[in-house]
Fold each of these.
Amino acid sequence: MKQVTIYTDGACSGNPGPGGWGAILVYQGKEKELSGGEKNTTNNRMELTGAIMALKALKEPCTVDLYTDSQYLSNAISLGWMASWKKRGWKRKDGEVKNPELWKELDALMSVHQVTVHWVKGHAENAFNNRCDALAVQETKKLK
């Protein structure tokens, strides 16, 4: 399988409010930038959407290292929260999972690809994460 590195980020002006997401896919030294947004959304929705859209852009099953500054996204996958929510019918122990349609879509995409999620500190030294943030913020500004 091809090895792809993906960086994603989401942004929102107000929560809810206009939001954007950005992603960078890196394969054999080549980079592809993706971005988009929604008029009335939340930061968590944009974080999830960035990861979903990046994985959807892959044309075949790949081994993926996905970097995000979202602890919500990272922990849900790495700590097994998402698997537990799925077993419970997309519910948490204490209630509903927010954005279940996005989690279901992400789960389906992760079953196609071998994804390892890595958390990176946002607004720090990672140039790819900073670029994804800029793409997401740019999309947010377009919608204001």
Note: Helices lie at 43-56, 71-78, 81-87, 100-112, 127-143.
Amino acid sequence: MSGAGMSGRLDGKVVVVTGAARGQGAAAVAALRAAGATVVATDVLDGPLIRKLDVTDDAAWAELAGSLERVDALVNNAGIAARERLPNLTKAAWQRAFDINVTGPMLGIQALVPLMPPGSSIVNVCSVAAMAGHAAAAYTASKWALRGLTRSASLELGERGIRVNAVMPGLIDTPMMASAPGAFTDAALAEIPLGRVGRPEDIAPTIVFLVSDDSAYYNGAEIVIDGGLTAHVSHKRIADATRGG
């Protein structure tokens, strides 16, 4: 899944990417374009060649779908961190996490699947938070829900020849991670066997692979990219190190 030799791999494919203005989304867009795809990059943020899209807005998804003739892949990358801890987590924060992290991908699937021919691909950018219990309850629960949506969609859409897979990034150097408390980053970094945080460019080649025909028999897969973080039990120490008064 390395970046070498990817040029032309996605020639002729039309790919929609959400949360594409920065971080993992921007890296995925660059890698997909380098591999030959025509990319529709969307975000609520402004950016070069970015089409405005609020993933929680049904009408915005319908408008996007109406502007496209065919879609070969959807990369559901948009998401928020939602770091509030129990028991102080508010209902509003919980709902917002689910609206963006779970309902957004579901609405995207509903809107774009009618435009997808057999052989198309949906990639849900999940998280290692969906591999275990993490302290950020809303984020963790929403990513577990996205993992469940991925599995259900892989079952439902397989008969159409549409593959649905999940990518599970670990600690990645993005604007989302930059907003985390220093204690969280330090504690998490100490648990990564490779001894470094990931880069958005570490994730993008796997997204290209899952969009490409090379992954034609991948369906319902969950690909962890975390430097070994979840290869061992770790999060209790991280939770304790970042626990507030």
Note: Residues 1-5 have pLDDT under 50 and may be disordered.
Amino acid sequence: MAVNDLLAELNKRMTATIEAFKSESARIRTGRASTALVSNIKVDYYGTATPLNQLATLGVPEPQLIVIQPYDGGALRDIEKAIQSAELGLNPANDGKVIRVPVPPLTEDRRKEMVKMVKKMGEDHKIALRNIRRDINDGLKSEEKEKMITEDDVRKGQSEVQKVTDRFVSQIDQLLSAKEKEILEV
């Protein structure tokens, strides 16, 4: 594997880590209704765990309300149960046709807890980025041992790996501060 192949793998794996952070942080409640809060909740639909967004149309007609319109009316109870057991602090109301999920505003203490949770999530993803960096650097060193690349190539590669890692860590920091601001907004 050449240096360029290792760098391509580095970019691919780090991009996947950023995407994972984005999707995880989208599920964090901010006090404002968002379909991302409930879209990936797994519903037991005829014995199969199915994401909610595949069973219903999700909408946000008001800033504090999510409306869920199932394609199959028989799934209403299962959807309602899944939302309650998802531990999001949401109480769905079922009127027989649609499920309305009011999103209550967060208390100040709850906002601070959420910020801590998001920061921990961000730190976990930064650790994942550093682990990827270590794997790629180990790959460079093993290629040098096998005489496939020179010591200079290793040094240049490691320098490039560090630049890429710094860029991705900076992206996590930006996403983190934006989410923090969103959570603390009243």
Note: The longest strand covers residues 56-62.
